[in-house]
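Q: I'm writing up a methods section and want to include an example of the input and output format. Could you take the sequence below and give the corresponding predicted structure tokens, formatted cleanly so I can copy it straight into the document?
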Amino acid sequence: MRICLVIDDYLPYSIKIGTKMMHELAVQYIGHGYEVTVITPDVKLKERYKIEFIDNVKVVYFKSGQIKNTSKIKRAINETLLSYNSWNNCKELFINNPHDFIIYYSPSIFFGSLVNKLKKLWSCKSYLILRDLFPQWAIDNGMIKENSIITKYFKYFENINYKAADTIGLMSNKNLEWFNKKYEIFSNKSEVLYNWTNNTKYISKEQKYKKQLNLEDKIVFFYGGNMGHAQDMMNLVRLSENMKKYKDAHFVFVGAGDEVVLIKNHIKNNNTLNITLLPSVNQNEFLQMLNEFDIGLFTLSKDHKTHNFPGKLLGYMVENLPILGSINPDNDLKDVIDEYNAGLISINGEDDILFNNAIKLLDKSYRDNISKNAEKLMHDKFSVKNISNQILKVINNEK
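A: Here is the clean output for your methods example:
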């Protein structure tokens, strides 16, 4: 069987958890004897497309405009063109290389047109891994108005994206409930599909980053990934301010996004010494950081109406980092974490609770107990083996 994966960024250029999960899924299928092709944009390409192999995964990079870390208008234009550019640049390749199944990942919402064309060309089914309920989260955060022309524009492509799927996988029960009420027309083809990991630990005895950053005697609270409005990074900045009197605690934030400038300005204006802000790094360097640091952080904006399960938590679990974070109200992520006592979760805005939870994790024995529970949760619910089998049920008409 030949499986086609479609995603808006991929290795080796991305450290995002969606990239990591899709690569692990691809490797899992290859381990079962399937052929896997990944279709993904490359903003640096001068030719129409290029092909590389990563861990026996065939990766087709197509020429595209900038869609990450650029202005919102430029990003919207270039993302809108993703389906056009991929088809225009790779049409001959698609025609000559049919596949039996398509798995595509959102974000982005703009691959629906491509998936529709490929389904007709190849006479196959598709599975949408829905991880970004956009434009809803942008509406929730006040970035765009619900009835604006811009919102209607995005919703038009969102609708195409959902129509292109034979099955839509959402990351939690609460997300599924919300989706089925909001998009009742698609409720007959939606299901819960948890995030996943291959459970492989990164082996390193090196203390590279703690040494470089002069943090060898510190307990490091680590955040890695997107730093945008959906996260509300100032939530973690407030925590760092509250933790200033604990001299053994230090915060390391790694990544890119719209709120990086807010963090930089705060550090500069307040002479903040317990935050280290670093740009995005490649996947190996990111894993090295997870291997060295002590506590995994996450934050979700309190204005979210949807209920995300941040993929970065999987990396924390794999490397046995206890989880500390805050969520939007009613998010069932807290129920999952609490069931296993795998971390300490509070509601965004409950700064005192987040602060007290952080203090608890300064105790190493407490951290060690939480870490063991996080590892068990990972094995029980978030195995790539289970997820890969669940997705393939679409082909076998079991969904």
